Amino acid sequence: GAVVSQHPSWVICKSGTSVKIECRSLDFQATTMFWYRQFPKQSLMLMATSNEGSKATYEQGVEKDKFLINHASLTLSTLTVTSAHPEDSSFYICSAEYRGLSYEQYFGPGTRLTVT
Amino acid sequence: DAKTTQPTSMDCAEGRAANLPCNHSTISGNEYVYWYRQIHSQGPQYIIHGLKNNETNEMASLIITEDRKSSTLILPHATLRDTAVYYCIVRVEGDYKLSFGAGTTVTVRA
Asked: How far is the C-alpha of B70 from the C-alpha of B79, rounded, in Å?
């Protein structure tokens, strides 16, 4: 149980375009989902926290107008990278909080974004 | 502001136990020790967590010292598929934030 999926698994886009990444909890409801970014050979950095039905909370230094997050339902959160630039190329990973016996986060497989 | 210290890397032999240390000398009384791992180009995978008692599940065992200032993750019979970066994280249960440090790159060799 506690499976999180992401779509697409990889995407290549041109500079200036927007890209949407979906994160779904497949077998549980997640009131809270998280978006991370990971550059090559670096650790994961939390970008934002999204709660179903409310605005996302962004970490310091993350542009909320560039990284649009929508948590429309208890099983779906989307991250849209607007006007993407080559420096936005990264590995984007979502996670969903499973409030079972403890508050565990389960991670999606990640989305590799390359902006040319 | 790292709350945990882990070795940068370690090798271990396939079939042998892998013991991964983690220091968390400033851990607070209500902070748990969590372990995640990340296989190359995949999302992190939850392994185990504990407060002060030793814990075991199908993946690993977690040994926490009595003073809680350090812990060891034990993979009882390492396989090549256990090659990954292992992250030791301390956090208050219920606190959403997971702060990933550099972790330990574990390479299991045949």
From this structure: 25
Task: With CB atoms and an 8 Å threshold, state whether B49 touches A93.
Answer: no
On the CB side of A87, CA atoms within 13 Å amount to 1
User: CA A25, CA B8: separation in Å to the nearest integer?
Assistant: 32
A31 interfacial to chain B (CB closer than 8 Å): no
Per-residue pLDDT tens, chain B, 110 aa: give them. Answer: 568 999 999 999 999 999 999 999 999 999 999 999 999 989 999 999 999 989 999 999 999 999 999 999 999 999 999 999 999 999 887 777 888 999 999 999 99
Query: To which H or E segment does residue B9 belong?
Result: strand B9-13
The partner residue sitting opposite B103, judged by closest CB among A43, A97, A103, is: A43
CB A56 within 8 A of CB A64: yes
Q: B93 — contact with chain A (CB < 8 Å)?
A: yes
Strands A76-81 and B61-64: unpaired
